[in-house]
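[Meeting: bench + compute handoff]

Bench side (C.D.) handed over the final construct sequence. Compute side (W.E.) agreed to return the predicted structure before the next meeting so the bench team could plan truncations. Sequence as handed over:
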Amino acid sequence: MSLAQDIKEFALDIGYNHVGITSSDDFADHIKEVQSLGAIYDFYVEDPRQFLKGAQPKMTMPSAKSIISLVWDSSQNAFPESLLGKIGRIYLARCYNALRHRINGARYQLTLDFLTKIGCEIGTGIFVPEKRAASRAGVTAFDKNNFAYAR
């Protein structure tokens, strides 16, 4: 089995719904779009996390070969009706900044541990345009409303 297949199989086994792998090539379209917005996106361009550098992954991590996109479908969970329409499902599912002792944090940590074990180098502090990376990896689509949709 190939390295890519091993990674995909592992991630699917631990509960991700979709796994895609794409190149670490620049996201030139993203850079161009952000720069075309001018001053209204100064907050993004000037952010200390340097998001535009992340759109050029090899600038931050010259050894980068691939970007792995993991998708977990938060719509598969049931949430209280009183919260729906007020709080996004992705927040209700506690997917952002998930703690290691919670399922989403544990799933992510297991993936990092697996990748390290099989010899993959993991970039940290690199903020790639996630929606574009997932789309290029074939696991989501997004449009003008800026939401990413999985199959």
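W.E. noted at the follow-up: Residues 3-140 form one domain. C.D. will use this when planning the next construct.
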